[in-house]
Amino acid sequence: MENLLSTKLLLGELKVVPESYILPPEDRPGITKIPLCDTIPVIDLKLKGQPHHQLVHQIIHASKEFGFFQLVNHGIEEKVLEDVLKVSKEFFEIPIEEKAKFLSDDPLKSCKIFTSIDYQNEDVHYWRDALRHPCHPLHQHIQFWPQNPPQYRNVVGAYTVEVRKLSMYILELISEGLGLEDGYFENNGELVEAQLMGINHYPPCPDPSLTLGLPKHADANLISLLLQEMDGLQVLKDDQWLALKPLPNAFVVNIGHILQIISNGKLKSAEHRVVTNKNVVRTTIGNFIYPSHSCKVEPANALTSDDDNPPLYRPFFYKEFLGTFIVDTYQRKPPLQRYMLQLQ
Q: Could you check whether the bond before residue 137 is cis, i.e. omega within 30 degrees of 0?
């Protein structure tokens, strides 16, 4: 049970950061706290009097400039959000023996707890536990989810259905803003076939200056929606870290590598990281929209149809990208570099 880090921390067994979790000096967040910023765009989906084209423009602008935005008035009821946060926290409070049933480093296990994607091979570990499971179509996956807490499946199931609808609506607005055909993502169903939910559990850390909850990275999917209550997420822009200020009942939306490729580089998959907290537990819920493993990924034809806009990336199958993404991320190589075309 070595990599079930949070269990040991919540029991008070760790009073110092273990050597295997201490980052090299150049990667540590340090003792200087980055102040919360208001510069990352906030987009109101139901702003009274807001023209539709203005909403689309705001989303495209945020996706180009930051790769991130916060979404308010998104239509998912507050109680749904409260319930899923509550049951997510309760899961990590269940007895060790119950959590141990889901502890696994097996990439083929669909519902599992792990600390890092490549825990066995990474040089330094990260200060979190994560529960991950697929959730679309719901009926194919829900029977593998935790049954303790008893309400987990009902609450999380209802939530994932709602958040998928919202994700697809955002993708529809992005498609419109890029000038793609109506129903681009719906018509290319393999691009959005998979949906993964992840609960990230960041226990209190004895010395947050030495370690991270998650290292600098960008997401390997199309789009991610994160539900959070407290700060900890930081976004890299122009070589500076910005600490995102959480808004009540808001989603943090970020663009993934695959959407950057589809947009032929017009949108930005921004790098981000998670810092830890000395005093409190931080729990977040991420939903990620992915292509199927067999999906062919390439820039949209509508964005590469003339000599002034040649494709920047070569076609590839998503399974190939998943294999290289993990290796490149941990070796600190840009994951998209090997897929870029060398334009003369």
A: yes
- pLDDT value of position 11: 38
- Provide CB contacts within 8 A for 299, sequence distance 6+: 261, 262, 263, 264, 265, 311, 312, 313
Q: What is the pLDDT of residues 104-126, one digit of tens each?
A: 777 678 899 877 666 666 778 88
Secondary structure (DSSP) of 94-143: S-HHHHHTTB---TT-SSEEES-TTTTT-SS--S-EEEEEE-SSHHHHGG
What one-letter code names the amino acid at 181?
E
Cα 156 to Cα 162: distance, rounded to the nearest angstrom = 10
- Of 243, 254, 236, 37, nearest to 167 (Cα)? 254
The pLDDT of residue 344 is above 50: no
pLDDT tens digits, 197-224: 999 999 999 999 999 999 999 999 999 9
Burial class (CB in 10 A: 0-12, 13-18, 19+), 77: exposed
Half-sphere exposure of 191 (CA within 13 A, CB side): 24
- Reported pTM: 0.94
Q: Minimal CA–CA distance to 219: which of 171, 268, 172? A: 268
| DSSP E strand stretches across the chain | 36-37, 42-44, 68-72, 112-114, 129-134, 194-202, 214-217, 223-227, 233-237, 240-244, 251-255, 272-274, 282-290, 296-297, 316-317
* Cβ atoms of 133 and 142 closer than 8 Å: no
* pLDDT of amino acid 290: 97
Structural tokens at position 247: 């808004």
Residue that is written with structure tokens 């537990």 in the block: 281
Which token pair is 166?
């919202």
How far is C-alpha 263 from the geometric centre of its chain's CA atoms?
19
